[in-house]
Amino acid sequence: MSSRFLTRLRLAWESTRPVDPETTATLRERWQALPEHVRTPAQALGQHAVGCEGTHGVFPRCNLACTPCYHSRDANRVRVDGGHTVTQVRAQLRLLRERRGPHAHAQLIGGEVSLLPPDDHAAALLAMREQGREPMSMSHGDFDASYLTALALDAHGEPRLPRVSFAGHFDMLMFGRRGIERPADERSLNPYRRRFVDMFADLRREHGVPYFLAHNMTVTPRNLNQIADVIRDCHDYGFGLFSFQPAAFVGDDRRWHEGYRDSTDDDVWAQIEAGAGTRLPFRALQVGDERCNRTTYGFYVGERYFPILDDEKPADLHTRDVFFRHLGGVNFAGTALPTLAVKLARVIARHPSVAVVFTAWTVRMARTVGLRRLLRYRRIRPVTFVMHSFMDAADVTPAWEALQRGETSAQPRVLAAQQRLQACSYAMAHPETGELVPACVQHSVLDPGENVALRQFLPLLPTVRSHREG
Ligand code: SF4
């Protein structure tokens, strides 16, 4: 056998290795850094993922007004500058790559992402991909199809991004959307939700660009009772994830208008369950601290939703354990299908029980859904439900200060915030200090000073043009 052939064989063997050794080391480190109270069998951090990542200080300005708004009062006095954004995104993501390993999901988040010129937006997404990140752009969704096309295609009309992922933020607490400046209720936004999704469907049909869409919604006592209808009305629009954020007292205090803590996380989750039409088990898979995140993975067949794991069924919990043990480090999202198939085959060759456990799970799921339903609809639509509960700045600030001093607070609220920050699943990077901080700390503690400095560095120009105005 020639040495060239042997080299190729070795490279093929390495590229189909189920888990990259660096991923194994990063996951182990992540697990060891987690506080004891979240090191449970259900914990995804350190067993499957390192957590989510987000950018900060890159384009803080927004052209809609939300109540509440998590951005500090100076955010809208900072000019959107594509060059600054790309430079900062590259530096922040490089640090995240260094500290959190080769693969993660990351959000390109500011302000409003569509205020960036499309070329700069694309350059920022590509800079994130260069660091092994699967990027998602966070937007209010009030932009035109021409912007999306300009973002996704290069000067020759060819796709320049392997996939576009957006989280569209739609709720009645946002003011200034074109055509519906002050929404009367959630349902009146449905045509705008539909229009947003349709732009991506058109892009895929006309140019072959794949997409993933999430729907984000802030929840206050004003729209709490409308959550269920949003899900019932929009579950088949094309969103792959519905994320709900109970409002917190953080950011610009001029935009705090309600008693956000009058409703609890349980109230919000009950409404999500009412919309999904079924109990949503969130204890089979946990991301960080349960007080921060609840997640249910599942799928629709027709109008019915089926969670993939039931936290009250031992067989499902065993399936989860086997997944974490043998497949936890496999990079599913960022691997081409043929390579992924070989990786899985190698896992099964070493651990045949994996195939047995997952076959049994498939049979159980098929029985739960029912053959008649499967034959009737012939289509499974994966949809994930998430609730992410940010904390109030009044709790985060003393908790972070105590953590910096190496102290544990005796005050129950501050102690709870400390525990949650230590188990945080959503990190932001500071290349200037080499530090990663929880997003709660970024918004509660660091954003105000950062935006004052950015306001000096990137003052508003006399005329600010945005793509929406074009
Ligand atoms: S950003 Fe805040 S609410 Fe979110 S996971 Fe981190 S600590 Fe919890």
UniProtKB/TrEMBL annotation:
Q: Which organism is it from?
A: Jatrophihabitans lederbergiae
The taxonomic lineage of its organism, from the top, reads: Bacteria, Bacillati, Actinomycetota, Actinomycetes, Jatrophihabitantales
Recorded protein name is Radical SAM domain-containing protein
